[in-house]
């Protein structure tokens, strides 16, 4: 993510610095406006970075062959996350009148008690892999910016400084406190009914998928995996409990993220090159 999308060796240091600053500004503005739609951080980072070569210094050519490989990783993530889910459809039907349309979507009290602590453990596991993947996606361009400022070269020859990684951890925690509620409401309550047993299945399946991708150094989307897992488990337990309209809106937001981020980044880069 720090230097793999375009050929930085052929790019002037001034344009490298402009590219990195522009990416960070646009990345923050985009995520500020798109938290409700669960837009994808890795896809936005790829889109904003992919346009830097053509819009800036003409000698810094984009490695376009890397963009499809990363976007293709993101597309099948919902079924990948879904394939990791245990079968959580063995619960009995709840007979109350207000939930008859969602039979099988709720746990019995004894089931909720058993799975409540397990869900906490899987959520902790999910937070761990989320930090290992999504924080890296956001910090990668920042490390590139730091390398350009300190060495004039965006090629990383050693491990990144610990303070930059710590900065990323603090940033994701602050973002969770400030805007995380909207995303949690969308995935946790608006998309489908989530109970302790289904929540454990969702978090475990998505976390395992992201962990495997992180181990393979692939910048996949935790959001894709979680949404895919939520919809698949909700569908297995009770088809009527899934908000398909919201799911379609999320898919459209994912599809629009890459071209929109690429276009806005190209525009900002064009303005920078004409004014600096």
Automatic annotation (TrEMBL):
Keyword Transmembrane helix: yes
Keyword set, alphabetical order: Membrane, Phosphate transport, Transmembrane, Transmembrane helix, Transport
Localisation: Membrane
Main subcellular location of this protein, as a coarse class: membrane
Chain segments carrying region Disordered: 29-60
Keyword Transport: yes
Domain of life: Eukaryota
GO cellular component assignments: membrane
Membrane protein topology class: Multi-pass membrane protein
Transmembrane segments: 138-156, 162-179, 191-212, 248-272
One Pfam family linked to the record: PHO4
Gene Ontology biological process terms in this record: phosphate ion transmembrane transport
GO molecular function list: phosphate transmembrane transporter activity
UniProt record similarity statement: Belongs to the inorganic phosphate transporter (PiT) (TC 2.A.20) family.
Protein name per Swiss-Prot or TrEMBL: Phosphate transporter
Organism in which the protein naturally occurs: Mesocestoides corti (Flatworm)
């Amino acid at each position: 993510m720090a230097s793999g999308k375009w050929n930085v060796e052929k790019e002037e240091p001034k344009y490298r610095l402009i590219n990195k600053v522009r990416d960070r500004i646009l990345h923050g503005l985009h995520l500020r406006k798109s938290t409700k739609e669960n837009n994808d951080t890795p896809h936005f980072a790829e889109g904003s970075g992919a346009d830097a070569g053509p819009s800036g210094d003409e000698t810094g050519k984009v490695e376009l062959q890397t963009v499809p490989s990363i976007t293709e990783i993101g597309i099948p993530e919902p079924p990948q996350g879904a394939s990791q889910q245990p079968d959580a459809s063995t619960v009995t039907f709840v007979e109350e009148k207000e939930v008859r349309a969602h039979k099988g979507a709720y746990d019995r009290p004894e089931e909720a008690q058993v799975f409540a602590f397990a869900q906490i453990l899987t959520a902790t596991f999910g937070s761990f892999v989320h930090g290992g993947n999504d924080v890296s996606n956001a910090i990668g361009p920042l490390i590139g910016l730091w390398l350009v400022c300190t060495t004039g070269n965006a090629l990383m020859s050693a491990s990144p400084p610990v303070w930059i990684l710590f900065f990323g951890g603090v940033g994701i925690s602050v973002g969770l406190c400030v805007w995380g509620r909207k995303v949690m409401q969308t995935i946790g309550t608006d998309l489908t009914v989530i109970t302790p047993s289904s929540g454990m299945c969702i978090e475990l399946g998505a976390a395992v998928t992201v962990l495997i991708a992180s181990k393979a150094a692939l910048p996949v989307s935790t959001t894709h995996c979680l949404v895919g897992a939520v919809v698949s488990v909700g569908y297995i337990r009770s088809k009527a409990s899934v908000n398909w309209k919201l799911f379609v809106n999320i898919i459209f937001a994912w599809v629009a993220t890459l071209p929109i981020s690429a276009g806005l980044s190209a525009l900002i880069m064009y303005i920078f090159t004409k004014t600096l």
